[in-house]
Task: structure prediction
Amino acid sequence: MEGDKILVTGGMGYIGSHTVVELQQAGYKVVIVDNLSNSSIETIGGIERITGIRPYFENLDCLDYVGMDRFFSKYENIKAIIHFAASKAVGESVQNPVAYYRNNVNGLINILELMPVHGVQNIVFSSSCTVYGQPDVLPVDETAPIKPATSPYGNTKQICEEIIRDLIFSGSAMKSIILRYFNPIGAHPSAEIGELPIGVPNNLVPFITQTAIGLREKLSVYGDDYNTPDGSCIRDYINVVDLAKAHVIAVKRMLDEQQPEPLEYFNIGTGKGLSVLELIAIFEQATGVKLPYEIVGRRPGDIEQVWANPQKANTILGWKAETSIEDTLRSAWAWEQNIRREKN
Ligand code: UD1
Result:
């Protein structure tokens, strides 16, 4: 219902902030919990400039059980939670696995324990196509088997999905929608919010835009000897605003009690795979900027190719990726130019 209060954990982060914007524009009242470990307080100004509304924000860590308990008491009557707060760097998770398990798994457990205490029944969980590993069948749909995780980060997503599943099958009154994202990219068309990687970006598109603006000398393309048409890896790049909208639909579905089962899984992707080299070519053509790059060796742990079958989300949620890849890459580029202007 319009005006219902939604808690967004990690709401200052990349996908979280875009989702806050869409929730507010759909009439929901948003409260954000974020420890700012991988986000900036300035994001709240961007959200306010886009929507005209400053969301409630608490600088709080989901690992702080007592703090979270107090939070739920303060902002009573929360109808649903979208749980983004988690760490997401694959390489870092290999270096520091225990910290990843603590942060991603314990954060979720705290929330799941506090939900019934405070009468909250609905949770949307941020998962990833990483749970499918290298799928045997492409495009991959939600019935595909879960493959052994290739990193502690990927394993935290599998474990969190399992914890939610076990809780719901225990006969609890809880309901959940698990969204498995493919590769979110781009920024809000206003260029007021976007991805803010700290240090050298791990992900492809922030590395592309930082190279295009001259912050990095050249992009390394990790491998051109894969079994794909041009030899580079293939991913399903989904516009972050389109992705954010899937969360609003999921929340509405739960609050309107439209779920036939208390636990549902949806792939959120475009249904189209693009190679790294294709993405570079589209970026150059869409922005008019030449991108220096070189082919280097494979990145350990990379999946060769994965793209979504988003049919289930298309038909059951009525959600569909709408933004073209050109507009999405232009939005990432506009955002990069905007943040560099602000920093200079
Ligand atoms: C990875 C995770 C995904 C996670 C996401 C969030 C796996 C298998 N995938 O996605 O679950 O949600 O990170 O951080 O664990 N590339 C380059 N040069 C670069 C950077 C990337 O060529 O400088 C290539 C990669 O080899 C890959 C593609 O670009 O083929 C996309 O890479 P990236 O943006 O890092 O995302 P994933 O690895 O797909």
